[in-house]
Amino acid sequence: MLNPAGLTLLIIGLGLELAFIKSVSLNCLLAGCCLLYLLCYRRVKLTTIALLLLVTFPLALGSWWSFLAFGRTDNWHNAWIYGSRIYAYLLLGASLTLTNSVEDILFNLHVHLKLPATFVYGLLAAFNLLTSIKNQFATIRYSAQIRGRNYHLWQPGLYLRIILVALKWSADLAQAMTAQGFSEGYPRTRPSAKPFPKWQFYFIGLCLISYAWGGISGSWW
Question: Any transmembrane segments, and where (predicted)?
Answer without folding.
Answer: 6-39, 46-66, 119-138, 158-178, 199-216
